[in-house]
Amino acid sequence: MAQDLTGQAIAITGASSGIGEATALACARAGASVALAARRADRVQALAQRIEQEGGRAVALPTDVTDERQARAFVEHAYEAFGRLDGLVNNAGVMLLGAVTGADTAQWRRMIDVNVLGLLYCTHAAIPVMQRNADPAGGHIVNVSSTAGRNASLGAAVYNLTKFGVCGFSEALRQEVLHHGIRVTVVEPGFTESELLDHNTDPMVQAGAAHRRQEIGKVLESEDVAAAIVYALEQPAHVSVNEILVRPTGQRT
């Protein structure tokens, strides 16, 4: 039987827009206190203010998760702000598409830094912090992957690599921390309306995305993915939802 998030503290990365912003709002409305991480300080500060105005509790902690010290400080400050840490939503990510041949390898490093290392740094910091909680409920780590973590496709090879890695890491981590009462969920959204595609300036990539959107029809909204994340977080401590794959109805793969 599902429960709400009252009394819980949830830390969310990539909270300045898209799925992260929607997840912060959904968690706060479900009763959680939320710690918000993103590089864009003005955006997370405005979001924290909005949550407070709605009657929730929020703290904005501008953070670059690719910097291990900042990632660790984010987790520690989230714990200090609320006196506990029940959940970590590793949502920060970038999607830079294109062929391997002739690629700008700086884009590869950027994706690996955010999608993989940022997630690892925050997770590594969160596990011992969650174990400080006074009650035996443990904690919950939610890693946002993608359908690109299940199906490889032309033009997305390195993005696929990062998201396949998130899925593999999540399952191995689940097996490692279950004896501490910590649950792990990987969420794999399909085509979602967000800023991710805006990072791509290649006209071929933009044309391909536009064609795929037309083929799918109605794509996911950030709130749809946030609802899936909150569903996993709301389950009682003995229920571990390990994987959620959510696609637009019109998306084939």
TrEMBL record:
Print the keywords alphabetically: Oxidoreductase
| Membrane-spanning segments | none
Quote the InterPro entries the UniProt record gives.
KR_dom (IPR057326), NAD(P)-bd_dom_sf (IPR036291), SDR_fam (IPR002347)
Q: Name one Pfam family in it.
A: adh_short
The record's similarity note reads:
Belongs to the short-chain dehydrogenases/reductases (SDR) family.
Say which species the protein is native to.
Paraconexibacter algicola
Q: What is this protein called?
A: Oxidoreductase
The Ketoreductase domain extends over 8-194
What Gene Ontology molecular function terms does this protein carry? oxidoreductase activity, acting on the CH-OH group of donors, NAD or NADP as acceptor
SMART domains assigned: PKS_KR (SM00822)
Q: Does the keyword Oxidoreductase apply?
A: yes
Oxidoreductase as a keyword of this entry, yes or no, is: yes
